[in-house]
Every structure is written in structure tokens, then in C-alpha cells.
Amino acid sequence: MNSRKNQISAVIVLFLTGLTVYYLSEELAGRQQQLKAALKVLDWRFLFLALSMMLLSLLMEALSIRALLSPADRRRAKFDTLLRVPLLNQLGIGLTPFQTGGQPAQLYGLTRAKIEGGRAMSVILMKFLVYQVVVVLFFLVGYAVAAPFIYQNVASTFANFIPFAIAIHAFVILGLLLVMFWPAFTLKVVDFADRLTRHFLPKKRVDRVFHYARTKVENFHYDAKRVLKSKKGLLAAIGYTVLQLVFFYMVPYFVIRAFGYSHINPGLILVMNIMIVMVISLFPIPGGVGGAELSFQLLFTPFVKNPATLILVILIWRLITYYFCLFAGILAYVLPTRVTTAAEEKHG
Hints:
Strand content: under 5%
Order of helices and strands: HHHHHHHHHHHHHHHH
Radius of gyration: 22 Å
Structural class: mainly alpha
Number of strands: 0
Largest sheet: none
Helix content: over 70%
Shape: globular
Distance between the termini: 31 Å
């Protein structure tokens, strides 16, 4: 993990967080009475349920990764070590543009558990593919159900981003499927990109990058076939990923309920959060800081009529789903890893 880049990203996150808090504070200016009314009805039990949803989501992600491991790797890795992997993932995606740091962070977590790097990377990519497919299916169902509501109640600028977001996710899925089932074609694409970039980049760097790419394509194809043969593990990973996303998508529902909105539709809230997750992935900003909050404000204004309450909901939602995970990820990174001994593996 590149500490220099992480430090720069952390500074960017802090700066953007400061701007976002300033913007939200300005939104609260002159609304002291609304703020008092919101805090007066606050029910902490629902905030506890919101945090529980986030914790359950992280647990489901760990179980999904475990389901994709080989039996030997499953015995080798302690479950408390696997619990760190989703936290490291949250740290990685929270500190990098376009969430690109998630996979290297997960790889670091699995290799710390003494899982060979090539197998670990293949499992991570398979998990990423499962996650992308489930996210897109959630989106398609949700969009079909809620499209009229979105276009009637949400700013058209945001609504127009949604098809673009789904196109990006579909492109990523297609790329992974090509590597899994048509590696020969994928290697031809890599060779074409190799020849093209030699006109712009130093030869040694190009050789190193594309040798790495070819090796990863071949390794991922081989290990993906192993995972696909384990239908039980794959189906378990899909099931856990569905639960992971349901729990995550339900966090805003319980945060809003904490402020006395008892008649909101949980299904519609879930769909709105699906839209936010899809669109945030387009922002080239670590953690989508700023963009996530603005998107939430645009999408959830029809549900939370009190502007002061909406600002509090946004702050708590981000505290649970982003900042809490960042700090937990830092702890997962710095605390020593417990590894299964050879004797434990033998009797595991």
C-alpha cells in the first residue's frame, strides 16, 4: 500500500470533508428552531439499528470472501483475519479516486493471512465480479420500480447521470467476463494496448506493466474456473453479497426513522440508496466526499421535509457508512494479524 499516495488522499479527504461540513453548516444557518424540533424527536434506538446494518453488511462481505476461498485457504485464514478484509476494503475505496484502492487493500489483507497472492487476487476479482453483478441487478429492478418517482421528484441533472453509471458498471462486468471465459481475446486486447502504448511510454515500463497484465489474465482465468466449479461456494458468495447490499442500503431508512418519519416506504428508501451508490462511483474523488452528500440531499428531499433534519440525516449517514469504516479500516491495518499454525491447519 503506497503510504505517500495514501497521505495525499487523506489530506484531500480532510479538505473536502471540511468544505462539506461548512456547506451543510451554512444550510443549517437560521434554522435553530427546526434543528431543536429534529433533536427533540430523535430516537437513538433507530441509530443503533442503522449502525447494526452497517456492521452486518461488513460481516456478510467477510463471509462472501470466505465462501470463495479454497478449502485449504479457508482453514489457513482465521475468521477474525477475514473480518479485517472488508474494513481494509473500505479504507482503500475511501481514500482513492474511483474507489480503485479497494482491491489492493483486500489483497494486502488476504496475503497477511498467508494466502498466496495469485489465489488471493483471483478470489478478490471473483468477489468484485459477484458484487458488480448483484449491484447491477439491484439497480435494474430498483430503476424499473422507481423511475417515474425519480424523474418526477429529483433534479434532472442527477437523474441523467444514472444511465451513464449503469453503463460503466456493465463495461466492468463485461471485461471480467471476457477474462474468465475468453482469455485468448482478452490477451489480444492486451497485446494491442501494448503496441499502442509503446509510442508514448518507456519500453522497460511497458514491458513490466504488460507482462504483469498477461500473467494476471492467465491466472485469473485459471482460478476463476476453480471457483466456478465450486458451485456451492459461488452460490453462497452471491447470497452473502445480496444480504451485504440489503443491509447497507437500509442504513438511511433507520437514520430517517430515528427522526420520527415512521410512514416512509423502506423499499423506496432502499432504491434511492441504490441510485446514490451507482452515481457516487462516477466521482473521481476519494470516498465521493461532497458528491455523496449532495446526491443524498437531492434524492431524499422528497422524504425528509424538514431541511435541518435532512442535514442531520446526511451527517449521520456518512458518519456510519464512511467515516466509521475509515477509522475501523485504519485499526484493521495497524493491528497485528493472527495466523493459523500448521498444527491448527492439520486439525482444522
